[in-house]
Write a structure and sequence with these properties.
The complex is a heterodimer of chains A (about 240) and B (about 270).
Chain A: E1 3-13, E2 19-29, E3 33-37, H1 44-51, E4 59-64, E5 67-68, E6 78-81, H2 95-101, H3 104-107, H4 115-127, H5 143-156, E7 161-165, H6 173-190, E8 193-197, E9 210-214, E10 218-222
Parallel strand pairs in A: 3-8, 3-9, 6-7, 7-8
Antiparallel strand pairs in A: 1-2, 1-4, 4-5, 9-10
Helix pairs in contact in A: 2-5, 4-5
Chain B: H1 7-32, H2 38-56, H3 60-80, H4 86-108, H5 113-120, H6 128-147, H7 149-157, H8 159-164, H9 169-187, H10 196-210, H11 214-239, H12 243-268
The chains are: A alpha/beta (about 240), B mainly alpha (about 270).
């Protein structure tokens, strides 16, 4: 079984603070679509940061693609969509410039772009339906379209693991539903591993294979249909 | 007398042209990272460098270059290591720089008109050797921006995403900070230590309201910077005014016009 993410007895605390995570075991296979859910402050973003090698666990080990997460080679294999508030949506950038930024790590900082890169960028734009908007300033797009542009940025690096951190925060319900369906299609078409981190996951419930519920540790790990018996998300409407 | 008949004006225009283009090019990336005021903090460290130059009897510009670059890298180090929040790191450098400058200036007995030329800019004191240094450092600075352009843009748009995907974000941030330090040091003879930060920020604010892409915004901000410097120097020459003030007031006028006119422009697009 090839693993994309593997956490083994991981505990984590910020300096001088209490444990945020305690004894977390988690295995995510390549090609899975998993949501990491839980209340705000429950530790899901910390779990994500440890899994990606951005934070070092106090104890236990974190591995990405079978390598220690903080020393993994070829990190361009990870496509990452940060929380909306951390993105430069106010920058005077075109959609094309945003998506091109997602290709830089795969090509290398100093190497010039070639035909392969331009094709990957065009493919990513086409995949999210923005192929005719490459020269449109990103500020002129709707919230849902901006989100797609940043997904295209993550896809431009042809990732094996797509990580989305609170992707629907600040987006209206209709756009959330459309986004969930889009991710479902993307997963089916590309077979890419998707890690969807959010305190609300109703938009992707029909498409994810597993829900991992985090509250200081993992309190539930299984198919979404089995979750209601364990936890009720007030923002979550079951179909 | 025609303005370019004077040798010192030829030097001032040549030096100012480099400054007018370099400052907004570096400033764009600082503004995008919401570090618009870093130039002010570095400027105060450059003041300490100038004072140290007088005290040690070495080139004030060279000493300011070292001080400004070290200060810029120091701010980035404090910020990135979470030793201090961005504004606190800046405050630390800002006040340490100005205090050290005052102490060193008084120790050197250098509180004179020449010092004021560094604070507010002067078109009379720039030499051809100053221009040579500014031209070399300006060319190197613009060359580094061109070389690292895609990486700098990636960090400006999404620092966390760039870090996750393996770009050397820390290195790019240190390079950008060092470029800010160099820009302050090379610009201070023309614009003045107290006003150089404005030339890194105001043309970018103006261009950001009009530009439709990162590339067009950077190029436009460089154009506005160049126009502000050349027109400001001309006004300064004929009006016998401090060049730094004239240049920055023009850049501010461009920024205000862009902020006021942008909604109108957007309606016509």
């Amino acid at each position: 079984m090839q693993l994309a993410v593997e956490l083994d007895k991981v505990s984590f605390a910020y300096p001088g603070g209490p444990d945020v995570l305690e004894g977390v075991d988690l295995k995510i296979r390549r090609g899975e679509f998993v949501t990491i859910a839980g209340p705000n402050g429950g530790g899901k973003t910390t779990l994500l940061r440890v899994a990606l090698g951005l934070e070092e666990p106090v104890s236990g080990t974190a591995r990405l693609f079978g390598e220690p997460a903080d020393r993994v080679r070829d990190r361009y294999r990870i496509g990452y969509l940060a929380q909306r508030t951390r993105l430069g949506i106010d920058a005077p950038a075109t959609v094309g410039e945003v998506v091109t930024a997602g290709r830089v790590a795969r090509r290398g900082l100093l190497k010039p772009f070639g035909r392969e890169d331009r094709e990957a960028i065009a493919e990513a734009l086409s995949r999210v339906g923005l192929e005719n908007q490459a020269s449109t300033p990103i500020q002129r797009l709707s919230g849902g379209q901006q989100q797609r542009a940043y997904i295209a940025k993550a896809l431009a690096g042809e990732p094996e693991l797509l990580v989305l951190d609170e992707p629907t925060a600040g987006v209206d319900v209709d756009a959330q539903e459309a986004f969930g369906a889009f991710l479902g299609e993307l997963h089916e078409a590309l077979g890419v591993t998707i890690l969807y981190v959010s305190h609300e996951f109703g938009a992707v419930e029909r498409f994810v294979e597993r829900v991992v519920l985090v509250r200081g540790g993992i309190v539930f790990d299984g198919p979404p249909a089995e979750l209601p018996a364990h936890w009720h998300d007030p923002s979550h409407v079951h179909p | 007398m025609f303005i370019l008949d004077a040798d010192f004006m030829q030097i001032a225009f040549a030096t100012g042209a480099v400054v007018g283009v370099l400052a907004p090019a570096v400033g764009f990336f600082l503004v995008q990272r919401q570090m618009s005021l870093i130039g002010d903090g570095i400027g105060h460290a450059a003041f300490a460098g100038v004072a140290a130059g007088y005290l040690l009897d070495v080139s004030p510009v060279g000493a300011a270059l070292v001080a400004a670059t070290l200060a810029a890298v120091g701010v980035e180090w404090l910020r990135s290591r979470h030793r201090a929040a961005g504004d606190q790191a800046l405050a630390l450098i800002f006040y340490t720089g100005i205090a050290a400058g005052v102490v060193l200036v008084s120790a050197a007995g250098a509180l004179n008109a020449n010092l004021f030329s560094f604070l507010f800019g002067s078109i009379l004191t720039v030499t051809w050797s100053d221009f040579t240094l500014v031209a070399i450092l300006g060319a190197v600075g613009l060359g580094i921006i061109a070389l690292l352009y895609r990486g700098l843009v990636a960090v400006a748009l999404d620092e966390e995403g760039a870090r996750v995907s393996g770009l050397p974000v820390g290195l790019l941030n240190v390079v950008l900070a060092a470029l800010a330090g160099v820009t302050v040091a090379v610009s201070m003879r023309i614009v003045g230590i107290l006003l150089i930060a404005a030339l890194m920020v105001l043309p970018v604010i103006a261009a950001g309201r009009v530009g439709t892409s990162i590339r067009s915004t950077i190029l436009l901000s460089m154009g506005i910077g160049l126009l502000s410097v050349t027109a400001g120097l001309t006004i300064s020459y004929y009006g016998n005014l401090a060049p730094g003030g004239a240049i920055v007031l023009l850049a501010a006028a461009f920024a205000l016009a862009a902020v006021g006119g942008a909604p109108l422009l957007n309606r016509t697009r």
